[in-house]
Amino acid sequence: MTHSIDLSRYPRLNLFPRPTPLEEMPRLRQAIGCKPRLFVKRDDTTTVALGGNKTRKLDFVMADAVAQGADVIITWAGVQSNHCRQTLGAAKKLGMDCHLILTGDEPAVRQGNLLIYTILGAELHFVGDEGVGRDPEAEMAAIAADLRKKGHTPYTVTIGASTPLGALGYVESVMEAVEQGKKLGVRFQHGFLATGSAGTQGGAEVGAREADPGMRIHGVSVSRDADSQSVKVAKLVNETYAFLGIDKTVTASDILVHDQYYGGKYGVPTEAGNDAIRLAGRTEGLILDPVYTGKAMSGMIDQLRRGAMDDAEAVLFFHTGGSPALFAMPEYYQR
Ligand SMILES: Cc1ncc(COP(=O)(O)O)c(C=O)c1O
Which of 198, 220, 306, 327 is least surrounded by Cβ atoms within 10 Å, i.e. has the fewest? Predict the structure, then answer.
């Protein structure tokens, strides 16, 4: 590879096999009836505790935890968090304990990601709903202080591992996909992904500008309007450039975010998202999720059906994982 970003300078743990597969989706293309060829980057196959995009970020972030001599990992997110599941999986794989601060109340039955937390032996702290219950950041700090007093070396992971170090995981994913495309003789003019805490899109924006500036990243927002999400992504892109020592910046207007596909509420499935989950499953055997990838896929399908990318040779979908959440919402998929 001849990219000027040399990720081998940054310590990582090789928690999963690279490259993740890149697959064509001819039957989905046929079902949509679109012109561009469709591909999927299978980042749902990243092996740590059922995998997903966070594992790519954690490969770098947890290397930092190891370098700092950590023996306990602390992080926070919602009760059904793919980020918490993968952080916990990585911690266990490294022989560390893991505290998860969960914004929500403890449900009567443990399902989906919460079931995995329980099986893998996380220390769980339910703090009530965000904005209503206890502040998860303050809770993390209090638990870290308490662990330090007891002689431990705790390491706190930012929600979504969306820091410049974590974003390197998506710089890499895009660079990898572009190389895989080259081997197949295919150029991706568009790349779709779900965007929330912004590390995935932030890294992907840096990776695309580096590996193929002709590739447009489309963030499908899962929780915010396009204006605020593009500001959030641009900030992380600029922090990542600074971290890498690259003298480049972007503004929010350089970042493309679609906010019409998440239904206005984080974590609540949409009809179009659920249709996309069934279509991708029935045509390609992919298992998407109700909170992120189903909504992102519904956005890609809608843009393709509108003909918005008809002049493109190929469009790439980043499958960022998340399927365990399906099992916490079985009522949506009974027929
Ligand atoms: C399955 C899945 N896809 C996409 C995302 C969004 O990634 P990011 O938080 O880096 O924007 C997440 C974040 O939790 C996720 O779990």
Answer: 306
